[in-house]
Amino acid sequence: MNKITKYKVALMHVAPVFLDTSKTIDKVCNLIDEAAKSGAKLIVFPETFVPAFPIWSALRAPIYNHKWFKLLAAQTIQINGPEIKRVAEYAKKNSVFVSLGINESANQSVGCIWNSNVLLSSDGNLINHHRKLVPTFWEKLVWANGDGAGLRVCDTEIGRIGALICGENFNPLARFSMIAQGEQVHISTYPPVWPAYDPKESSLWSVADGIKIRAGAHALEAKVFNLACAAYMDKTMLDMLADGDKEAARILLDSPRGVSLIMDPMGRVISEIMQDSEGILYSEIDLSLCVEAKQLHDLSGYYNRFDIFQLKVNRTSNCPAIFIDGDSTYDNIDTEGRREEQE
Fold it and tell me: Which of 14, 168, 169, 187 stands 20 to 30 A from 213 (CA)?
């Protein structure tokens, strides 16, 4: 495999077509075309970009959010569905890698939703599928726990690429599982806004500061390029979420926004920082910088004590049941948590 060490990346600090999967996929494909024409080789979309991040769970008591859950469930996609196939076609057409956040469903349940990230290769193949390990705080009202099947770093012609979703970047063991696989490019994805408190009662919480701290820590510890991509909240999204409620609108307007930025292996910001405007964030990266940085601290190599510290990672997929029919044997679980029949 011929390795490309210097190339352009594109982070999509943009808004989905809120709760409309078909139109959001249209936007994804158009943005892939645009970024590819600008020379990008790796294109990153935010957390659960297709078709929405469930911010409504932070605004109202659960008993008032049933309609939102049903709307989202109706717009989820499956990993082998036509939406992913279409995005894969655009990745192949443009010879680019694409990281995309989705709300995922599967055949086991009409009401189970995962916060998932997929990585598509430049030849249109799905090379990784990760479900967020643990939904954070009020996210638990919408998403199910994921599993470790997608805790993988993919060895590609543009480097060794890993990804964690939002609060997973707080988890030192999840991050070390990426480091231990020789990660060079780390993708970290975030929502457009994340109310943790009523903004009139607390000014201590900053989503932007949290993203910068986490991105810098992993870039510096892993000696990787960290591509931190947050979504953008447009007026349509805000109005739909507020749903005529002035208090909900106030919280959304005053709560801290997410930011998008790119850091190098020494934890330095090498791009502009996008927060209050919608757009595409571009930057050139050079993977050779990861090598020199490893001379200082190589946590997957010499700068560790594997005789003292050991990490075990279970990468099997969760599966609700095992079914054995007739003479068929089932000994493999795919990344959707389903059994595959083996001849």
Answer: 14
What is the domain-level CATH number for residue 278? 3.60.110.10
Tell if the pTM clears 0.85, that is, is over it.
yes
C-alpha span between 164 and 204 (Å, rounded): 25
| Domain presence at residue 30 | yes
Range of the domain at 110: 6-305
Per-residue pLDDT tens over the stretch 113-155: 999 999 999 999 999 999 999 999 999 999 999 999 999 999 9
* 342 occurs within a structural domain: no
Residues 324 and 252: their CA atoms lie apart, in Å, by 50
DSSP-derived 3-state class of residue 179: helix
CA angle 295, 301, 304 (to 5 degrees): 100
Helix (H) or strand (E) holding 225: strand 225-230
Q: How many domains does the chain have?
A: 1
97-106 β-sheet, strand order: 126-131, 109-120, 97-106, 40-44, 6-13, 279-286
Examine residue 250 and state whether it is found in any structural domain, yes or no: yes
Cα distance between residue 318 and residue 63, in whole Å: 29
Tokens of 191: 């929502």
Report the pLDDT averaged over residues 64-73.
Answer: 98
Check residue 77 and give left, alpha or beta (phi > 0: left; psi -120 to 50: alpha).
beta
Long-range contacts, stretch 319-324, CB < 8 angstroms, 24+ apart: 320/108
Q: Read off the pLDDT band of 263 (50, 70, 90).
A: very high
